Amino acid sequence: MSKSDLLFELYSNLSTTGALTFSSKSLVNKMLSYSDLSQAKVVVELGGGDGSITKGIVDKLAPDAKLLVFEISESFCKAMEKKFSQDNVQIINDSAENIHKYLDGEKVDYIFSSLPFSFIAPDIQDEILKQSKISLGQTGFFIQICYSYLLRKLFKKHFSSVDTSFTLKNLPPAFVMVCK
């Protein structure tokens, strides 16, 4: 999929992508800085999009670890399947609320999310966050990028600890919320 095709997909489905551009390398690095992927065994990404966060995860992931990437756009999934064809990366064309159906009882070390929670119905928001929290191991983290600080209240409803940082090095500037 060409960059122009990716941009067309991004803008034609703004309510599901929730972004005006793809995540910058600076934002991806900031998000990943809250993890130690060299020690992780199971990692999940919610909202794979163009694969910019996926690439950052894959570059730091231990060879024996696995990555499950959830994405509801079929065209984004097809592009990511070509880009990330290694055995330990599974691209899943399904909603993030179904995370539990793909884990086979395994616990997750990190969940990285770029889901546009502002555009997701409240009952689905709650189900995604409920399933995410249940899926995390005892030392696991849910790490979310978002464009509104007001979403912190939603994450506080599901996680006891929510640390927030901000980066200007993205268009638009973004928050990284680290939830435990």
Give the SSE map.
Layout: H1 3-12, H2 14-17, H3 25-32, E1 42-46, H4 52-60, E2 66-70, H5 74-83, E3 89-92, E4 108-113, H6 122-135, E5 136-146, H7 152-158, E6 162-167, E7 174-179
Parallel strand pairs: 1-2, 1-4, 2-3, 4-5
Antiparallel strand pairs: 5-7, 6-7
Helix pairs in contact: 3-4
Q: What sort of overall outline do the alpha carbons produce when their principal axes are compared?
A: globular
Tell me what the CATH architecture is: 3-Layer(aba) Sandwich
Note the run of SSEs as H and E.
Answer: HHHEHEHEEHEHEE
What would you report as the Rg, rounded to the nearest angstrom?
15 Å
Q: What is the CATH T-level topology? A: Rossmann fold
Helix content: 25-40%
Helix vs. strand class: alpha/beta
CATH class: Alpha Beta
Q: Which strand-content bin applies to the residues? A: 15-25%
The total of helices stands at 7
How many beta-strand runs? 7
Mean pLDDT: 91
Describe the sheet with the most strands: 7 strands, mixed
Query: What do we call the CATH homologous superfamily?
Result: Vaccinia Virus protein VP39
Strand order, largest beta sheet: 3-2-1-4-5-7-6
